[in-house]
Amino acid sequence: MWKSWRALACSLCIAMGFCAPTLAKDAPVYTGTFSSTALSGYDPVAYFSALKPAKGNAKFSTEYKGAKWLFSSAENRDKFVATPEQYAPQYGGYCAWAVSQGYTASGDPLFWKVVNNRLYLNYDADVQKKWEASIPEFIQKADTHWPKVLE
User: Which residue, 60, 84, 124, 131, shows the most beta carbons closer than 10 Å to its own?
Assistant: First the structure.
């Protein structure tokens, strides 16, 4: 139910002119409307090392592609800084299924999957089920659409 309230609040915010929809060309890393923190503050390295989401800590942070990234340890931060493209979610953390359809939607760090050593996020559980039905096909489509989405 909270997703519908969130969608309603975002729609009202846009309609009233307080904010604009997030566009990948303006924000290549998804951070949400009122934030500059990627992955809602989750540690991107933890998906690979702990095999699950882990909240980051502001004392272990860095900036990358215009967003603030948080980590659960200095070690994870340092790994990210050394090779951010290895750990940052694909398509800037936008929903991988949405990008495969040619548009963006927010990516939720609790609906994720590592495929071929790359992190992908989805909007919610229902969208993730759609995406999991044909991951290789959707990745191929998203890879094709992503440069166009950035324009």
Answer: 131
- Residue 124 falls inside a structural domain: yes
pLDDT in tens, 30-76: 998 889 999 999 999 999 999 999 999 999 999 999 999 999 999 99
pTM: 0.84
Sequence-distant (≥ 6) Cβ neighbours of residue 57 within 8 angstroms: 70, 71, 72
What is the residue range of 114's domain? Answer: 22-149
Quick check: 76 and 46 in contact, CB under 8 A? Answer: yes
Burial class (CB in 10 A: 0-12, 13-18, 19+), 8: exposed
Least confident of 13-22, 34-43, 78-87, 111-120: 13-22
